[in-house]
Amino acid sequence: MAFEFDFDLLRDLTETSGVPGYEDRVREMVRDELGATTDHVRTDAMGNVVGTIEGDSDYSVAVAAHMDEIGFMVKHIDDDGFLKLDALGGWDARVLRAQRVTVHGEEDVTGVFGSVPPHTLDDAEDGEEEVGDRVVDLGRDAEEVEELVSVGDVVTMNQSTIEMGDSVTGKALDDRVCLFAMLEAAREIEDPDATIHFCATVQEEVGIRGATALGVDVDPDLAIALDVTIASDIPGVSEEDHVTALGDGAAIKLKDSSVITTPKVHKRLKSVAEDGGIEHQLEVLPSGGTDTAGFQNTNGAIPVGALSIPTRYLHTVTETANGDDIRATIDLLTAFLESEDGDHDYSL
């Protein structure tokens, strides 16, 4: 299908590397994009980027999406040149077998996660796996590896982003697809009444750290965060465990394990969606946290809401989102921000 958004930008964002604390390459892209669509852009000491559109009123809204992807840091290089890694973010070790990675050392180096051929495994060896058990093979002798890689270098998964039917699949859709939606809204919004801070945050995958700092620095009257959410609408998962479904529209978050969104905010998001004929669904996420929590009570309590893009196979290299859901999220975020003028009462 021909997507109704800038697929090339989405592909570039997802294929670019940026683990928690090392979001530099993504940050440069974000600064360029926001520099063209907002009144001014700044970067703080943690690396969060804020692009601001100045509105006519004193009322301000923060929109947040995180730049970092889950990845690794090299913690040890053994005598044979194999790398042992420490995880940056939540990984299921089972999905790492036979995957390619990029080690960002003196130069970008391709490697693979090694695994023992199944022919040689016995039942005792085929048990539960840990990320720390995995090793990266760079296909080089130890001396050359030592010249190229050091302890502390970061590692990302190596995967392209492609169109797959009505969907997009690749690595780092968590959360680059929502970062993309935020950047598209900043491009499409016209003369908002409220001042809007578009916040590209860091280190979400290791504890919502960037957004927590921004909650103090930006100090908005209202915050809306964007992140992916679970879509387990696949064979073998009962319907009650789907959370969301691909193709049913943007997800309006009611709760996750880090936040209960402000009822008046999520009700108004729903109202804006209904008035605009924008496809949407409601999200009740039993576990997991988002940048929404970073703003809710960091600098005193403020009302918060959240939009999510349903995504299958989270925290793998084949994360998959539906093109229409992405478009619906952009449309709903844009319509909501354009209607924010400070007159909506979110008090309890």
Write a structural description.
It is globular and about 65 Å long. Strands 1, 2, 3, 10, 11, 12, 13, 14, 15, 16 and 17 form an 11-stranded mixed beta sheet that branches. A hairpin with a 5-residue loop joins strand 1 (40-43) and strand 2. The chain has helices at residues 7-15, 24-37, 142-148, 173-188, 209-217, 263-276, 292-296, 323-339, and strands at residues 40-43, 49-53, 60-66, 71-77, 83-88, 100-104, 108-113, 135-137, 154-157, 162-164, 167-170, 195-201, 222-230, 250-255, 280-284, 304-312, 319-322. With 348 residues, the chain is α+β, with helices and mostly antiparallel strands. The mean pLDDT is 94. It has 2 domains: 7-69 and 171-339, Aminopeptidase (3-Layer(aba) Sandwich); 71-157, Elongation Factor Tu (Ef-tu), domain 3. It starts with 6 loop residues before the first helix and ends in a 9-residue tail after the last helix. It has 8 helices and 17 strands.
Q: Could you say which overall geometry the principal axes of the C-alpha atoms support?
A: globular
- Tell me the Rg in angstroms: 21 Å
Termini gap: 44 Å
Instruction: Compute the number of structural domains.
Output: 2
Instruction: Give, in order, the helices and strands.
Output: HHEEEEEEEEHEEEHEHEEHEHEEH
Runs with pLDDT <50, length 5+? none
Q: Kindly state the number of beta strands.
A: 17
The largest sheet, given as strand count, sense and whether it forms a barrel, is: 11 strands, mixed
Strand content: 25-35%
What would CATH call the architecture of the largest domain?
3-Layer(aba) Sandwich
Instruction: Please write the CATH class name of the largest domain.
Output: Alpha Beta
CATH homologous superfamily descriptor of the largest domain: Zn peptidases
Indicate the percent of residues in helices: 25-40%
The mean pLDDT is 94
Structural class, please?
alpha+beta
Give me the number of helical elements: 8
The CATH topology name of the largest domain reads Aminopeptidase
